[in-house]
Amino acid sequence: MLFDSHAHLNDERFDEDRDELIKSLREKDVDLVVNPGADMETSRSAVELSNKYDFIYSAVGVHPHDVSNMTESDLEELKILAKSNDKVVAIGEIGLDYYYDLSPRDKQKYWFIKQIELANELNLPFIVHDRDAHGDTFDIIKKYKAPHTGCVLHSFSASAEMAKEYIKLGCHISIPGTVTFKNNKKTVNVVKETPLEWMFIETDSPYMTPVPYRGKRNDPSMVKYVAQKIALEKGISYEEVCNATKENAKRFFGIR
Ligand SMILES: [Zn+2]
Ligand SMILES: [Zn+2]
Prior knowledge:
This protein is α/β, with parallel strands linked by helices. It has helices spanning 18-24, 40-52, 72-84, 105-122, 134-144, 160-168, 185-193, 223-234, 238-253, and strands spanning 2-4, 30-35, 56-60, 88-97, 126-131, 151-153, 171-175, 199-201.
């Protein structure tokens, strides 16, 4: 019933109970999860995890936090990982993060573009991380995304107007748990203004835990709170939100 389009189940915060947790997800109505990579090591472990569980899929890519020392041979390895594993359904997560600025901005942009070009080449969609870099992220996607390549803005944090511009480029919008936070009017507005057919839901677990569990470790079962909030704000049923976001993401990632 629920498709968590973005969860880091390979994160060390799941080391103690990973298998147990994953096995419990179906009882909690989660039937599909995409686990993106964030650096070379977690790209490898994401693929491994997706090869172990039929309902978990993976993406490979290097996050802007970790591009400082990225090399051409890393890019080549991402390509090999994607080409040689059926469960890899996207390149990601890739993008720009000017909030933490953990990597120099010129390197962030360079490797964001390179990884978009890899997605174009492999005919895979890509998953974008954008924090406080809304203008540059949009400009790069507009310039480098091939028309045939899918793109999703994960944990969308820009405005409803930006969401509209992204949809014009054929990009999807993924709504995170922060939409449940009391003062997050901006994301609530995105939910109200964005057509359901362009929307995914996600946890970004173990981070971004929604209300009422804010402060605790997040996991894919909590994606239901995102769906509930969207249903409430759009005035439609919970089931409709679950089904539509699941079908959207399945089509996008090419999952049958
Ligand atoms: Zn992210
Ligand atoms: Zn993430």
